[in-house]
Inverse folding.
């Protein structure tokens, strides 16, 4: 199992980035897939998740700005991030949870990527 994130970078507030998570070793669409972030000095936060049935959830702070999606042919998870704010600055990770229907349970995510840094400046 391997998850490899990319797409992070530096952007000014109001800008956009698209994160990608290339998955190998399993079929991403068959399980819960999630995006998490961790800012310096803060706890890791669940940002968005997508269940195998297509159910999607977002943390309130990103609703209307971030969109999680999957390309099944490429076995890749994405997160389009628009209207970025300085408080979105963090290391972003993708992860998988084998318990379908329990995507909202952060402690069930057991495979993680190495992360990609997102920095939003004012």
């Amino acid at each position: 199992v391997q998850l490899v994130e990319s797409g992070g970078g530096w952007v000014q507030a109001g800008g956009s980035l698209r994160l990608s998570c290339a998955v190998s070793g399993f079929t991403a669409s068959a399980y819960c897939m999630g995006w998490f972030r961790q800012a310096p000095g803060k706890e890791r936060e669940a940002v968005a998740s997508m269940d195998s049935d297509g159910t999607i959830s977002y943390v309130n702070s990103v609703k209307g700005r971030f969109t999680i999606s999957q390309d099944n042919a490429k076995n890749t998870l994405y997160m389009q991030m628009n209207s970025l704010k300085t408080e979105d600055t963090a290391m972003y990770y993708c992860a998988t949870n084998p318990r379908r229907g329990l995507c909202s349970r952060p402690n069930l995510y057991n495979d993680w990527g190495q992360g990609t840094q997102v920095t939003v400046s004012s």
Summary: The mean pLDDT is 96.
